[in-house]
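Hi R.,

Here's the chain you asked about this morning:
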Amino acid sequence: MRENRLRTLWRKDQAAVNGWLAIPSSFAAEVMAHQGWDTLTIDLQHGVVDYTAMVTMLQAISTTATVPVVRVPWLEPGIIMKSLDAGAYGIICPMVNTREDAQRLVAYTHYAPQGTRSFGPVRATLYGGADYAEHANQTIVAFAMIETAQALDNLDAILSVEGLDAIYIGPSDLSLSLGCKPVFDDVEPKAQQAIEHIVERARAHGVVAGIHNGRPDVAQARIDLGFRFVTLGSDARLLAAGSQQLLGAMRK
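And here is the predicted structure, written out as tokens:
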């Protein structure tokens, strides 16, 4: 089976640099993948991507060594299993707030006896290999998003769920839940304390911590804190930023 380079990096205690895909375009995904990102996450929650577009984007990413990840819209078994069957090597699931939520996520992303994932890896075997089913449970990565005050209250219970590989912080939602301004980088002190607490507890449980960022300096500082999966830049934001830079130069 094709290796999941995320796991290879994490075994070496190295951080993966993740890009974000919100534009429903296989060509945009292909261009991004050829830039050398460790992973690319297709956003089905807040992006404008539907399932059909996602499949073509996974195919485009497959032309490179970049690991394909999907953020699903919600903790719902159908879309999680279909995303895995399409060839996603990682699932990021939003709003995991309780131990029971985390247990359901693990169940939906694993075949029996570890879980309840239905068998039908239609495209996954083309991407992962003919022996996909034999090794999928040890290869796929399941991320639970920690982004609410309720999840903070239940943090150790969530992190102790067997089979949960990683957690992923959405700083904006976490900040909102704590009564702070919703931002990626320059979070308010209360949110910063929560972020530091989450990564500390994750490492204590042997669970990888990831987080969304807007700037390279912030991403590096968070790697120094112990994060081993840092998102930096989406296709839509990079397109806008590049256009602004060129137009700003011309209009001066």
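One quick note: The radius of gyration is 18 Å.

Cheers,
M.
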